Amino acid sequence: MPVTQKDLMKTPKKALLKGHFACAGCGSALAFRHAIGSIADEVILVVPASCASVYQGSGKGVAFNVPTVNTAFAASDAVASGISRAMKKKGKSNLKVVVWGGDGSAADIGIATEIGACDRQENILHVMYSNNVYGNTGGQRSGDTMIGARTTTTPEGNTTPRKMVPFIMMANNARYVATASAAYLEDFVGKFKKALSLDGFKFIQIDISCPPNWRCESAHSVKISRLGVQTGIWPLFEWDRMTNNVVLSTPSKKYEVVENRVPITEWTSLQGRFRGITEEEIKALKTDTERQWNFIRKFL
Amino acid sequence: MVVKHETKTMTGNDAASYAALYAKPEVIAAYPITPQTTIVENLSRYVDEGKLDAEFIIVESEHSALAACMGAAWSGVRTFTATSSQGLLYMAENVFWTGYGRLPIIMPVVNRCLAPGWNIWPDFQDSMAFRDAGWIQMYTKNNQEVFDTTLQAFKISESKDIALPSMPCLDGFIISHTSGQVQLPTPEDAYEFIGPYSDPIIEIDVDNPWAFGAMTGPEQYSKNRKDLIVAMERAKKKIVSVHKEFEERFGRSYGNGLVEPYGDDVADLTIVSLGTIGDETHEAVDRLNEEGLNVNALRVRTFRPFPEEDIVEFAKENHKLLVIDRSASFGHAGQLGIEVEAVLKRNKVDTPVIGIIRGLGGEDVPYTKIMDDAKESLKG
Q1: Distance from CA of A200 to the nearest CA of B (A)
Q2: Is A226 contained in some domain?
Q3: Is A4 within the bounds of a domain?
Q4: pLDDT tens per residue across span B124-150
Q5: What CATH number does the domain located at B5-250 have?
Q6: If you write DSSP's letter for every residue of B194-216 in order, what string do you get?
Q7: Are B276 and B174 contacting, i.e. CB atoms less than 8 angstroms apart?
Q8: Could you tell me if B71 lies within 8 Å of chain A, comparing CB atoms?
Q9: Which residues contact B138 (CB under 8 A, 6 or more apart)?
Q10: Which residue, of A73, A116, A163, A246, is most buried by count of CB atoms within 10 Å of its CB?
């Protein structure tokens, strides 16, 4: 069932209350509100060290209105495994265990834990909200940082392609893998709910804007995410282990064709992290984008 | 009341496994490491054979083993894992998370030294590295005590007024892989002793959501840690009372549960130690006594919480202490020796303390060696 804008407004209860600490224009908080909101009465949240461990708020004023367990950076998927098994033992398998963390944990420090849970087919969903940087610590390069991005540890621009975690999860036999964008929330929430309807390890990577680290206008948060899709930088797709097929998501279909894509510079020019990006870097970024599309095409 | 027993020959790891089997944990997660591995294997077999109705999570690392147990503990179920040496170190941040998070996880540590170089033999460097992690630590002397201590650990840790994880420690190979006689109670009696974990310390509840471990300011943070300090104090009394209850029910005891004295009440020299060295010391004391030397012994069974009062009382009555450590705090001395000296000083007891380090990396510590050390100490 496709999710409509109207559906986005209907939640069992608010998942994100007033007083959260997310930055203005945070794509992760926006995605959280709608996705976690859609199942707010039956979700258990596991949060690794990440922006979500900060923007959930503090003390008695925690803004996450769902059970939330904060874990060490690399521990979340294992903690979620323990919760999921315990709930099964208690006859509460109806509860959804969701890991909500950034790209630092999902692409780097926690990837072994994540693949471990995937390998065991734990009944959990890992949502990797992706700002391509260690945001919480002030913007250092992560394995998810793309070519050309200026971070505090790659001040002259990152030279290596991003680690494509969705492909890694496909190769490790996940039940369901999808990509999403904070600019297309209906698409994201649809995938989120679909993932939760399936048994086993599910993985969704969602592209979210990060105004402080991307050095962009807060008001451009959604616009930049949309351009991420329109430039082809971030292809939206779903993959199901049962069919081993990739299905391109509606917002991305048109952009499989290179000629239809919006020039990458329209996306980079809105972000300070790409200030000073060279022609060669743009070229390398385009080449790497095409490499990702070529990988996806093998499963179409 | 002394209940029915069955005597079986088994290794120390088997004894730990039986205690876990009888406690009926609902979630177990573990990762193999020598010399702990046979515990994991035993538990997998119990689950596969249907003897134990538990979720067994075959994790990809020790870090995840403890993390999975933490998830289960937050969900309000009884959990169990076990590890050794490098595995314990690999868990490190979660060991502290568990202790500071007050999760009642039971995790036997089969003591093994740390690399480099590769060596699978025992010393206490691994568990000693975690003496400040907020775990109850009890060092055992033989296979029977492994079973008894592990069983008692469930009852102590899961008490609402304690809420601390427990690390029963057993010397690798000397206990873990050596067969000995163990008196087993019936599974029903053992389970009845600890009871079901039906009123959990903490439990995830979707109808009453809370956030565990969110950002915490200095005031609340320090309050939480001070609570832990106080809980450790309470744990001392709890260990004694559970130990006493155990003794009444099953007829076995280890001193008062915190320390186990051996020999005469008063002696010229007291040999203080942990683990199997404590057991070996009995032989040394008997032979020294036969030679006309006035020596007794005190085995520190519970290292965390540290039995300050018992050690001070014992030291007051005796003339000199020889503390044998099987680990070192490099740049200082053996940890037990340091702490014994500290509590004597704090309590203004001037009994001299001699500290020595023996048995690192499985170096043999026979009673003959202990006798030599004792004679040397008597001279000084």
Answers
A1: 14
A2: yes
A3: no
A4: 999 999 999 999 999 999 999 999 999
A5: 3.40.50.970
A6: H----S-S----TTS--EES-B-
A7: yes
A8: yes
A9: B149, B153, B166, B167, B168, B169, B239, B301, B302, B303
A10: A116
Q: pLDDT per residue over A115-161, tens digit each? A: 999 999 999 999 999 999 999 899 999 999 999 999 999 999 999 99
Check for a shared fold between B5-250 and B259-379. yes
Whether residue B27 and residue A85 make contact (CB cut-off 8 A), yes or no, is: yes
Beta-carbon separation of A119 and B60 below 8 A: yes
Task: Give yes or no for B73 touching A (CB within 8 A).
Answer: yes
- Domain B259-379 classified CATH 3.40.30.10? no
Residues of B in contact with A82 (CB under 8 A): 27, 29, 57, 67-75, 79
H helices, E strands: number in chain A? 13, 8
Q: How far B58 CA lies from chain A's nearest CA (Å)?
A: 8
Partners of residue B168 on adjacent β-strands? B138
Task: Check if the interface score ipTM surpasses 0.95.
Answer: yes
B218 shares contact with chain A (CB less than 8 Å): no
B208: its two tokens: 């009453």
List the structure tokens of A22: 């997310």
Q: Which of A78, A117, A76, A132 is nearest to A100 (CA)?
A: A76
Number of Cα atoms under 13 Å in the Cβ half of residue A54: 11
- B55 by DSSP, 3-state: which? strand
Q: Which one of A85, A111, A136 would you mutate to disrupt binding with B, by most B Cβ within 10 Å of its Cβ? A: A85
Distance of residue A26 Cα from the nearest chain B Cα, in angstroms: 19
A121 touches chain B (CB under 8 A): no
Contact state of A68 with B75 under an 8 Å Cβ cutoff: no
Residue B4 pLDDT grade (very low, low, confident, very high; cuts 50, 70, 90): confident
A 10 A CB-CB count for A291 gives 11
- The domain that holds A281 is classified in CATH as 3.40.50.970
- Angle in degrees, 0-180, between the axes of helices B12-23 and B37-48, rounded to the nearest 10: 40
Q: Which domain holds residue A69?
A: 11-297
Q: Does the distance separating the beta carbons of A70 and B212 come in below 8 Å? A: yes
Whole-prediction pTM value? 0.97
